[in-house]
Specification:
It is built from seven helices and three strands, in the order αααβααββαα. It has a three-stranded antiparallel beta sheet with strand order 1-3-2. The longest helix is centred in the last third of the chain and has 33 residues. The two termini are about 35 Å apart.
Length: about 140
Amino acid sequence: MTTSTARPGAWAAPAQGVTSEQACPIAPVLDIVFSRWTTPILWTLHAYGRQRFVVLQRNIGTITPKVLTQRLRQMERDGLVLRTYHPEVPPRVEYEITDLGSSLAPLFAHLADWSADNLPRVEKARQEFDATEETTSGRGR
């Protein structure tokens, strides 16, 4: 299903015998951007600017230091985050979103708009589905 804003063929069905990457050309992007913690980290760095590790962890909330370190290293490798080491006593490290990371802001804005517009519809569909499942399966939850 294509829309007027989509590139021609963007939603075309994949040919038989293609790899998963060929079948869904955005799969690598989804792996990079939408892993469990990447989106909250990028969102926080975009919203609040350069931050020290502890401040970033506090602003995100429930992420552990180990996981935050792993995600930041991967995001630095992917070019989405810049790590700046200041050789002071004690040493200071700051993280900021790169231009490449910031280029994802319109995507996040569209997703936020979609969420605001459609999550109530998703919830309604779930409730209707669950009600139908309960009556057709004969079991309650």
